[in-house]
User: What shape does this take?
Amino acid sequence: MSYASHLLVSHLNIYHGRVLLISPHYLVLFRWLNTGPQISRSLLESYRLLELPDQAQSSPAQVKEAYLRLAKLYHPDSGSPTADPVLFARVEEAYRAVLAYQSKKQRPQKGTEEDEEEKSRGAALPHRHYLSYEGFGFGTPSQRERQYRQIRVDRASEEVLNYRQKEHEKAAAEEGALVERDMRQRSRKIKITQAVERLVEDLIQESMARGDFRNLSGAGKPLNKFEHNPYADPMTHNLNRILIDNGYQPPWVVTQRDIREMSTHVRNRLLEARTRFGDSMTNQEKKAWEELCSSLREDVVKLNKLVDNYNLIVPMIKMQMVHFSLSREIERAEKSAQQLRLEQQKERGQDRERRIEERKRANARNQPQTTKPGLMKWMQSFLK
Assistant: This one.
C-alpha cells in the first residue's frame, strides 16, 4: 500500500457499513500524491514535433529512429526537396530535450561499456557517428570499430589476391612468349633440316644418274627383306622368317584386300553402266539401271559385314573403315560418268582439230608451186 492510501485509510470512519470522508482537504492531498510526475508544455511540444506517442510508451530506440527519420528529411546537407535548416534545428532541440527527460526517468547504471557508449552518443549527435570509419558498420561505436577492422582485413586480402593474379598473368604471358619463341626456333630447324634432306636427295639422284654407285658391292642384288631382331628369341625369329618366306599375311591384311577388291568391283560396275546409259536415259535404260542398283545392294551388305570383321581385328584404330553406302556410291558413279563424258568429248574435239590440221598440211604439200607470169616475162626480157 502506498503512502497516500495509508494516509487516506487512517482518516476514514466506518459507521454502519458506510465510508465517510472526514475532510475534503485529505481528498486533495490524496489526488496530489497519486498523480505521477507532470511534464511541461515544451516537452509535450518536443514529443509532438518528433511525431512520437505518449512519453510513457516511447523507448530511447524509438526516439532515435524518429530523429534519424526527420534528420534525413530536414537536414540541410541531405539534398532532399524538404530540407529546412530552421525546422531541423527545432527537431534537434526537441531530440535533446526528450533524451534529457528520459535519462532523468531511468536509473543510471555505471561500470559497463554499453552505458559509456550511450553516454558518449548522448553527447554527440547520432548522425555524427557515421562520419567515422568511412561510413561502414552499424550499432555502437565499438561494434562499428570491429566491423571496420574486419572490412580492412577483407580489403587487404582482396588486394593480395589481385596482386597474385596479376603476377600469375604476367608469368603466363612471359611463358607464352617463350613458347612462341621456341616454336619459331623449332620450325626454323625443321625447315633447315628439310632443305638439307632435299639437297642430299637431289645430290644422290644426280649421282645415280651419272652412274657413280654402279661400282659398289652388291649392286643389282635384291635387298634383304628380313632383318634380324636382336630382342626376339631364336625360335620366334625362325618362325617369323618361315612365315614370311612362305607368303604369310595376317588376317586383317587379307580382309582389307578383299574389301578393296569388292568395293572396286561395285564401283566399276556402276560406272560402266552409268557411262553406257548416257545423260538422258530412256524408260528402258532407267529400268535396267534400277535393276542393277538392286542387284548390287546385296553386294554392299556383304561388303559392310567384311568391314565390321576388319574393324574387330585391325591392330590400330586409325586404320578402321566406315560402312559403304549404295546411294553415295551411285552419286559418285554419276559424277564420275559425267566427268568421263566431258573428257571424252574434249578428246574427240582435240582429235578433230588435229585431223583438220593434218589435212591442211597435206593439202599444202600436194599443191604445185607456180610462179607469176609477169616475173617470167621480166626475167626473159632481162636476159635478152
